Amino acid sequence: MAKIDYSAVKDLQNYRNIGIIAHVDAGKTTTTERILYFTGKKHKIGEVHDGEAEMDFMVQERERGITITSAATTCFWTLNNVLHRINIIDTPGHVDFTSEVERSLRVLDGAVVIFDGKMGVEPQSSKVWGQADKYNVPRMCFVNKLNLIGGDFEMSLKAIRDELSSNAVAITYPIGKEHAIRGYVDLVTMKAYEYSDDTKQEFKEIEIPAEVKARSEELHSVLVEKLAESDDVLMEKYLSDGVLEIDELYTALRIMTLSGQVFPVMGGDSRMAETKVLLDNVCRYLPSPFQKRYIWVNKETEVKEEYVGKIVGTNTETEDKVIYECKETEPFVGLVFKISVDPHVGQLMFVRVYSGKLQAGSFVRNSTRDKKERVGRLLLMHANHSEDITVARAGDIVGVIGFKESFTGNTVCDENNSIVLESIDFPDPVVSLAIEPKTKADQEKLGEALRKLMQEDPTFNAKTDTETGQTIISGMGELHLDIKMDILKRTYGIEVTSGMPQVAYKETISTAISHREILKKQTGGAGQFADVEIILEPLERGKGYEFVNEIKGGSIPKEFIPSVDKGIQDSIQAGVLGGYPVVDVRVKLVDGSYHEVDSNTDTFKVCGSKAFKAAMKKAKPILLEPIMKVPVVTPDEFAGDVTGALSSKRGIIKSMMPKGKVQEITAYVPIGNMFGWVNALRSMTKGKANSFMEFSHYEKVPDGLVNGILGIKE
Questions:
Q1: How far is residue 629 CA from its own chain's centroid?
Q2: DSSP β-bridge partners for residue 635
Q3: What 3-state class would DSSP assign to 178?
């Protein structure tokens, strides 16, 4: 791999930090591979289906032909004689690895959303679009695979507009259909281009062909009218003259793309010269770090404030708002967004530098955890390869070796700083497996290997069941856990056996209850005394746990109140029905008493725990099960069988949407009934249907099923 000239681009205006996001199998990694080829980053084109894609470097990725972990790289592209630096993160498409998309979008300035031109908007397309919305990420759309049978730009454009955003506007239009595609019309300049030879790696300019001229002019008018809305002067000119200059259109399109008012849509085949056009448009329309919009929410007023090219955080000591510009001269602030355990270099932290500069050998502060960290080495990443650098500047995405106390979502900053940035939210695991190492030697290695896997993946968890002694691993789906066990075997040399997947049930209550608990022990020496009265109330689904101190008059000294809360928090880890975690409850501490000699923090902790458990039993506890959103795309002929199968699994069919010769069915089904679903679906539809699952919400288990789940005989 050629050495990167880090200093080739100094002006942050010419930086682009982008992600490639999409539904699985839309062509994300293929697009990234072609970008690397056309930018000169690599000299051989790697194909996903051959297991040669450079960005899919894990053995598991190459064998399965899917992206599992996000991979970063840097390349350069020249537009109008200006060199641009493009930092790219290629993300997974499978929903089990959606956390990789989440943490990538948290630190990126822009994104390219890839769509399969045969399918239009697929279920995971909507998911990643929503994740990009969450972090205010401007994006462009590339409709891929238009040269294949069924490839349809018009259908895909309509689907994007109808299902994702009415602000999607075409900026290119294909010449020809399916295998006969031979070029495109640039709807901004109204110039046409076709492949210059059979390799399809270059374009030459031609006259707009007659068969697409009328439609191109129509789409051009739609685009110009939309862009005229960006500025009163432009609108006045458009209304009076009916035309706008090309430079005016470029400027307006960039402004509206940056603000999220427009999502440019282009299409073609990312294996061909269209990727060069995509690179041009990435440089032309997506933001530099100076143009990225950041939203800060005032905790007191809940009013959202928008800042452009300025990172906004909170001072950990004063709770005041802190604003830094994206400049090297500002204090250093960065965010740890990914952790990878490299067998050669150890623990590798991926950091987005928002302001200031980070130097190898320096010390920084983890302001989230108030820990001091040393920057041992700084690396520019290219998938699983790296290159040492001495300094990282505002706008950079780099690897750091040397951090010992940092986790995903932590803020790192200058030693004397105390700013904390918005962290990253990850969903809780919904599927569990009991695993056992095959040998005693593996037993000793297993704990450390699982610890490293948990560091890498916030949606993966491992713990020991105190009753059975079994090791329980938890994740987002069967594929997720299957991959982790494969990594244990291949990377760490640990073979494990596993049982049947288990559901991550939870417990809550259905009514409010008051309870008083008195802990009193007098046995010779020092006694124990604590007295607490609590009110236990149900909360809305998804609200978690809330503790409210309503003690008045000092009936319980303030130094004991956190101990009551801690005792309750320990108890909510195991409920009273099946020992599942308790969620969506509020505990009010309303009264109590203490003894000047026999009361202490420990007695109130124990008393709080006992009070909660007793109240829980009286508050009509109920069992909750995870409900999965299950989209299925199936040929029409199998739609009845699919809906019947989903209904038999207690699924609720929410929608059926025809898309050409297929139906897109969306159902909500308890995960406990969905193990083995993918194989069953393949068998039912002769392998012609596709489906995935993503967690939606928790719902009450029907009364008639509770005893069976808990193993209670009727």
A1: 17
A2: 662
A3: helix
Paired residues of 546 in beta bridges: 586
Kindly report the backbone phi and psi dihedral angles of residue 164, in degrees, each rounded to the nearest multiple of 5, phi listed first: -120, -50
- Tokens for 438? 């095959």
Question: Which residues does 185 contact at the CB level (< 8 Å), separation at least 6?
Answer: 172, 173, 175, 191, 192, 193, 208, 212, 216
Fold for domain 295-420?
Elongation Factor Tu (Ef-tu); domain 3 (2.40.30)
- Check residue 1 and give its pLDDT: 42
Please tell me the distance from the alpha carbon of residue 583 to that of residue 544, in angstroms, as a whole number.
5
Q: Which CATH superfamily is domain 13-285 in?
A: P-loop containing nucleotide triphosphate hydrolases (3.40.50.300)
CATH of 431-504, one of 3.40.50.1980, 3.30.190.30, 3.30.70.870, 3.30.70.3270: 3.30.70.870
For CATH 2.40.30.10, list the domain ranges present in the chain.
295-420
Which residue from 534, 54, 109, 49 is spatially nearest to 287, judged by alpha carbons? 109
Which distant-in-sequence residues (6+ apart) come within 8 Å of 441 by Cβ? none
DSSP code per residue over 132-173: HHHTT--EEEEEE-TTSTT--HHHHHHHHHHHT-TTEEESEE
How far is CA 328 from each of CA 322, 394, 546, rounded to the nearest angstrom? 17, 5, 41
Distance CA(386)–CA(3), nearest Å, equals 10
Q: How far apart are CA 689 and CA 152, in angstroms?
A: 20
**What does the pLDDT read at residue 91?**
72
At 453 the pLDDT is 86
Q: What is the pLDDT of residue 505?
A: 92
Query: Which string of b and e fits 499-537 if b means at least 16 CB within 10 Å?
Result: eebebbbbbbbeeebebebebeeeeeeeebbbbbbbbbb
What's the Cα-to-Cα distance from 663 to each of 374, 654, 655, rounded to whole Å? 55, 13, 10
* Residues of each domain in the chain carrying CATH 3.30.230.10: 507-619
| pLDDT tens digits along 648-678 | 999 999 999 887 778 889 999 998 898 888 7
Q: How far is residue 49's CA from residue 64's CA, in Å, rounded to a whole number?
A: 9
- Pick out the chain residues at pLDDT < 50: 1-2, 46, 48-68, 93
Strands of the sheet with 397-401, listed across from one edge? 371-374, 363-366, 411-413, 333-342, 346-355, 397-401, 377-382, 385-389
Encoded tokens for 305: 């404030």
> Looking at the chain, which residues constitute the CATH 3.40.50.300 domain(s)?
13-285
pLDDT at 663 (0 to 100): 87
Fold of the 624-710 domain: Alpha-Beta Plaits (3.30.70)
Residues of the chain with CATH 3.30.70.870: 431-504
Whether the CB-CB separation of 15 and 395 falls below 8 Å is answered with yes
Rounded-to-integer distance, Cα 184 and Cα 371, Å: 55
Per CATH, the architecture of 507-619 is what?
2-Layer Sandwich (3.30)
Coil, strand or helix at 460: coil
Q: Where along the chain do the CATH 3.30.70.240 domains lie?
A: 624-710
Q: What is the DSSP string of 518-577?
A: EEEE--SSS-EEEEEEEEEEE--TT--EEEEE---TTSS-TTTHHHHHHHHHHHTTS-SS
pLDDT of residue 9: 76
- Separation of alpha carbons 197 and 686, rounded Å: 40
Residue 188 contacts residue 249 (beta carbons within 8 Å): yes
Query: What is the arrangement of strands in the sheet containing 172-175, beginning at the earlier edge strand?
Result: 172-175, 183-186, 191-195, 203-206
pLDDT at 342: 65
The pLDDT score that the predictor gives to residue 42 is 54
